[in-house]
């Protein structure tokens, strides 16, 4: 009875705000629609989507074992788990995405990078319009390596304090990071080098994002702010190595990958040093000869079945139920909340079909695996966060 009273209070508070229609919408707490899981705890982000059943649920756990696998250098008696490096940033996916949560930058210059990496680029573009990496260090700085192969060096972050004062006189201090390379194994970086730090993001909700129709994303970009609401964006167009064409970017901090398979296999290569059918060449520049001549775990080091299992797993990580519907405190906040909710409803209806037409045949056992699991009417992100 106390729970019912609480909900009535929330609904009343929302309805009373500024005359706007911001009352609680049934199902709004289901921030992942039918995939929402009602669990809490340290492993709650790593659970399978609630509506996974049968073989599809089994496939999630096959992919989950690969996601948490610690890779080792080749050759190894652990068949199918070797091929780490030659240079890398982590030995497993979960090393950066611990418990499927987000990473963080180091606290000081003595802490080793884990969960944060540094992208490198120089002015210009490659044949597909993508950034150019440093001639010697490539597009990502790898601070670890296998034996007999030198790592690319050591990077550190230092922080400069930036004190200031709020309008009411309260003092504050912000920290501005400076990324430095005190040790470099192959000489200086390009004089025009640009460094972009990237924190590992959380893994939840990725399948929902991939399911949003491209037309919906493009329609709501409103690049020139035609509707005058002060909000505009631009859809990023990137090279799709799988499709061999330019496509809408969806994943990564700068939306530089068009799909989860491309994102995952790109991370396998750049972060762990594992090749795949999509990226079959080791991550070694011409000047890193020891890297280029090191033993590998096969060509490629993971096959398409493994890629499919991991991609399926990453697309079906649970999404948390909204823990609390927070009443708005002013008419202006009600208005913006109602507008945001309406825009989200319009934009984020996944395109999966309940008829499950998207099935594939696994080469290993020829069994049929249906890949669609979420109803076409699911709204993935209409819940308010606390």
Task: Write a concise synopsis of the structure shown.
The protein is of the alpha+beta class and 386 residues long.
- Fraction of residues in helix: 10-25%
Major sheet: size, sense and barrel closure?
A: 3 strands, antiparallel
Strand content: 15-25%
> How are helices and strands ordered from N to C?
HEHEHEEEEEEHHEEHHHEHEE
Intertermini distance: 23 Å
In total, how many beta strands?
13
Number of helices: 9
Mean pLDDT: 81
Sheet with most strands: strand arrangement? 4-3-8
**Principal-axis shape:** globular
CA-based gyration radius:
23 Å
The low-confidence parts are 1-21, 327-335, 351-386
Blueprint (SSEs and pairs):
Layout: H1 2-15, E1 36-37, H2 54-67, E2 87-88, H3 93-96, E3 116-125, E4 131-132, E5 144-145, E6 153-165, E7 171-184, E8 194-199, H4 206-211, H5 214-219, E9 237-240, E10 245-248, H6 260-272, H7 289-293, H8 304-315, E11 319-320, H9 331-347, E12 359-361, E13 368-370
Parallel strand pairs: 1-11
Antiparallel strand pairs: 2-5, 3-4, 3-8, 6-7, 9-10, 12-13
Helix pairs in contact: 2-8, 6-8
Question: What does this 3D model show about the protein?
Answer:
- With 386 residues, the chain is an alpha+beta fold.
- Helix content is 24%, strand content 17%.
- The protein contains nine helices and 13 strands.
- It has helices spanning 2-15, 54-67, 93-96, 206-211, 214-219, 260-272, 289-293, 304-315, 331-347, and strands at 36-37, 87-88, 116-125, 131-132, 144-145, 153-165, 171-184, 194-199, 237-240, 245-248, 319-320, 359-361, 368-370.
- The strands form six sheets. The chain has a three-stranded antiparallel sheet with strand order 4-3-8, with no helix packed on it.
- Strand 3 and strand 4 form a beta hairpin.
- Helix 2 (54-67) crosses helix 8 (304-315) and helix 6 (260-272) crosses helix 8 (304-315).
- The chain starts with a helix and ends in a 16-residue tail after the last strand.
- Mean pLDDT is 81; it is low at 1-21, 327-335 and 351-386.
């Amino acid at each position: 009875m106390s729970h019912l009273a609480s909900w009535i209070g929330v609904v009343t508070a929302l309805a009373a705000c500024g005359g706007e229609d911001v009352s609680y919408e049934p199902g709004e707490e289901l921030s992942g629609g039918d995939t929402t899981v009602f669990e809490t705890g340290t492993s709650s982000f790593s659970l399978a989507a609630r509506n996974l059943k049968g073989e599809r649920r089994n496939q999630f756990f096959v992919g989950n074992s690969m996601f948490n696998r610690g890779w080792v250098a080749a050759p190894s008696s652990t068949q199918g788990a070797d091929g780490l490096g030659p240079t890398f940033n982590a030995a497993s996916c979960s090393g950066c995405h611990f418990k499927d949560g987000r990473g963080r930058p180091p606290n000081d210059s003595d802490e080793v990078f884990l969960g944060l990496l540094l992208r490198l680029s120089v002015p210009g573009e490659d044949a597909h319009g993508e950034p150019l990496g440093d001639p010697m260090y490539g597009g990502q700085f790898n601070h670890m390596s296998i034996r007999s192969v030198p790592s690319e060096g050591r990077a550190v972050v230092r922080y400069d304090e930036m004190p200031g004062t709020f309008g009411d006189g309260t003092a504050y201090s912000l920290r501005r990071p400076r990324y430095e390379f005190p040790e470099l194994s192959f000489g200086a970086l390009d004089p025009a080098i640009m460094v972009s730090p990237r924190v590992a993001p959380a893994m939840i909700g990725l399948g929902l994002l991939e399911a949003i129709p491209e037309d919906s994303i493009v329609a709501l970009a409103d690049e020139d702010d035609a509707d005058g609401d002060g909000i505009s964006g631009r859809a990023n167009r990137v090279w799709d190595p799988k499709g061999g064409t330019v496509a809408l970017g969806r994943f990564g901090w700068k939306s530089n990958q068009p799909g989860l398979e491309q994102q995952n296999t790109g991370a396998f290569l750049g972060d762990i040093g594992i090749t795949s059918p999509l990226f079959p060449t080791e991550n070694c520049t011409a000047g890193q000869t020891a890297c280029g001549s090191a033993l590998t775990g096969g060509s490629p080091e993971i096959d398409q079945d493994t890629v499919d299992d991991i991609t399926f797993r990453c697309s079906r990580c649970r999404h948390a139920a909204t823990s609390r519907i927070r009443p708005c405190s002013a008419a202006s906040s009600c208005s913006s909340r109602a507008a945001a909710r309406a825009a989200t409803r319009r934009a984020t209806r996944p395109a999966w079909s309940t008829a499950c037409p998207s099935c594939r045949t696994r080469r290993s056992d020829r069994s049929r695996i249906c890949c669609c699991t979420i109803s076409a009417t699911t709204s993935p992100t209409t819940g308010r966060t606390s």
